[in-house]
Request: fold
Amino acid sequence: FRTRTLMRSPRVLDIARRILDHPYNGELGTLFLESSTLNFVVEIADLLRRESRNETAIGKRHYQRVMEAREILDNRLVAPPSTLELSRLVGVNVTTLQENFKQVFETTIFGYVRDQRLQMARILLLEHGLAAAEAGRKVGFSSPSAFAAAYKRRFGYPPKMERGRPRH
Reply:
């Protein structure tokens, strides 16, 4: 057997969350679990295919550097390193890191950090009941208005409305 760590996928996490929290019983529950499991397998296969394509396109060494950069960013989301510092930490020049990161994640380094912060803030709002300003501050936004604007751009509604929205 081999193990592999895949890149994080919001779709895979959403499928797993729905599998764990589904409200169905009996035959409908069984059907839901079977279809969700199939959906899960398809998403994992897609991740493996994309990973292989990216690794081939930029080279295994550069791909590993991008994944290392992502891990550093994930561990330091509230106070991420500058792009220059990040490139030094992974041992690649800034331009190469930026280009390869964008190819793998289809967003810039800044865009990735912003999106991860917003996803984390959404969890703080939904699952921990924090106020919007506090959630924004905890994930590194300097002002409540900047957080609210970014949140609305990303999710289509302001963070204050998150409490009344149904989870799916």
User: Anything to note?
Assistant: The helical segments are 10-21, 26-58, 60-75, 83-90, 94-105, 109-128, 132-138, 144-155. The chain has a mean pLDDT of 91.
